[in-house]
Amino acid sequence: MVRETWATRVGFILAAVGSAVGLGNIWRFPFVTGQEGGSAFLLVYLLFIALIGFPAILVEFVIGRRTKLNPVGALRELGSGLWNHVGWLFVITGFVILSYYSVVAGWFLRYTLIGITDGYAAGAASPEAAGALFGSVATGLDSLLFHAIFMAIVIGIIAAGVRSGIEIAVKVMVPAIVVLLVGLAAYGFTLDASTEAYAYYLSPDFGVILENWTSILPAAAGQAFFTLSLGMGVMITYASYLGEDRNLAEDAGVIVGLDTLIAVVVGFVVFPFLFAAGLSPGDGGAGEIFVSLTVAFTEIPAGRFIGVVFFGMVGIAALSSAISILEVVTSYLIDERDLDRVPAAASIGVAIFLLGIPVTIDLVFLDLLDKFADDVLLVLGALLLSVFVGWVVPELARDELEKGIGDLGRLGTAWIWIVRIPIIAVVFISLYLGVVEYVDFLTDDFAAWLAAR
Ligand code: TRP
To answer: Longest Cα pair distance anywhere in the chain, in angstroms?
Structure first.
């Protein structure tokens, strides 16, 4: 069977943007920013995106376009020895991430529906009530049901294929996200609390950066990789469907730029809502945004409508990301195992659904999976890919990047050296800190949870 390609350049860019813009931008970004000191973190994060994220996305693009294969096959074709097996890591990472990502995305669907059918008032009579509402949504049968619904939609899109599934879906979803988000930000601007919120968000305190750099740096690096969907071969897979040699650097610039712009705008949405409800950002935790926003949506004018739009918009963003994760694993089964697309997508999707079930039972499993994927697996994947391109196949990578651009001269050399030293150093330090943190979690929180059984 002939391998599919994108119908249009815009289709490829929107698919990559759709993958990049997701729960990472909306659910994770505000609470990481809050925890790490607001604007101080924002500044470091923007630097990381430009210096590390942009060159790193090109690493995946060149591998995908050169081989026109899934990540496992791509590394097998270009590498030898141990590199033949590294692609497996990506398949495993995809399983782990999508299993909990789908559960969390299901919560957003549920909150959208709650807004439509009941409004948020019942859940927000007090912080306790908001917490109880979140508890009932996050675990139990409801959570399982919405996890199942979300996975079914993801499977449906991936089963339909690259052009008639992913490409059509993202051409609707990404513009919808942008329009809804800009509308919400404009609304946030009208709130009295916006001045205070913007000040918190936009005036970096360099003292905070200096004092907390050991936690800000890895958090900013981790967030930069996560938000650009790097470290598990999503961008390899999407670039493998490119039919012609376009200017990859230009595409990467548009993708990274849009993802960053959207993340920054999310701050203009979430922080005014929180400040308007008299809440302070960054008390932390996965449920935080649900609990504080339901309170906010009962306080601000037209809050119920705004809440439905907000939660719905996040649900769409999560969907356009989730499909990219399932596509990685599906493309592996199609290329390497000769499976047809529909059974490949369906069987993997069901397996991922099953793996996510524990998260719907106890939120400790969310931490168990999220921290493992985020602190360890993705960073390890990014590290291996950077070593591969920077040290194993630099000539070939540079040659591939120059297709569609022309001779890059010194810029090409600079790119290889950025990958070779600074990116690898930053990712290596993040990996070290991430492993330490994860072991800490296992021996501490998770052990305590086990002991309490
Ligand atoms: N980038 C997405 C977000 O910000 C999440 C995501 C999708 C992802 N695919 C990924 C993260 C692959 C890491 C790897 O929500």
So the answer is: 63
Mutate to test the pocket of ligand 1, among 229, 313, 323, 371 (most ligand atoms within 8 A of CB): 229
Give the CA-trace dihedral at 317, 321, 327, 328, to 10 degrees. Answer: 180
| Per-residue pLDDT reduced to its tens digit, 320-374 | 999 999 999 999 999 999 999 999 999 999 999 999 999 999 999 998 998 899 8
Place of tokens 């919560």: 107
The protein residue with its alpha carbon nearest to ligand 1, atom 6, reads 229
Q: Packing angle between helix 83-117 and helix 141-159, nearest 10 degrees?
A: 120
Instruction: Identify the residue whose C-alpha is closest to ligand 1 atom 10.
Output: 229
191 Rama sector, left if φ>0, alpha if ψ -120 to 50, beta otherwise: beta
Residue found by looking up tokens 């596509």 in the block: 327
Q: What are the domain boundaries of the chain?
A: 9-452
The alpha carbon of 452 and the centre of ligand 1 are apart by a number of angstroms equal to 33
Tell me the C-alpha distance between 258 and 177, whole Å.
12
280: its two tokens: 């302070």
**CATH of the structural domain 9-452, one choice from 2.60.40, 1.20.950, 1.10.260, 1.10.4160:** 1.10.4160
Contact 28, 267 (CB under 8 A): no
DSSP label at 339?
-
Instruction: Give residue 124 CA to ligand 1 midpoint distance, Å.
Output: 31
Which residue do the tokens 């601007």 mark? 189
| Residue 406 reports pLDDT greater than 90 | no
Q: How far is the CA of 255 from the centre of ligand 1 (A)?
A: 13
Rounded to 5°, the CA angle 38-43-44 comes to 105
- The CA distances from residue 190 to 178, 181, 212, 301, in Å, are 19, 15, 33, 10
Instruction: Please give the span between the terminal C-alpha atoms of the chain, in angstroms, as a whole number.
Output: 52
Contacts of 252 (CB under 8 A, 6+ apart): 54, 57, 58, 61
Smallest CA-to-CA distance from 321 within 10, 15, 89 is with 15
Per-residue pLDDT tens digits for 287-303: 777 888 888 888 888 99
Q: Would you say the C-alpha torsion 25, 26, 29, 32 has a positive or negative sign? A: negative
Q: How far is CA 346 from CA 50, 152, 162, 325, 337, in A?
A: 37, 9, 15, 14, 15
Both tokens of residue 140? 């139990």
Category of 231 on φ-ψ map: left (φ > 0), alpha (ψ -120 to 50) or beta: left
Q: Give yes or no for a contact between 162 and 1, defined as CB atoms under 8 angstroms apart.
A: no
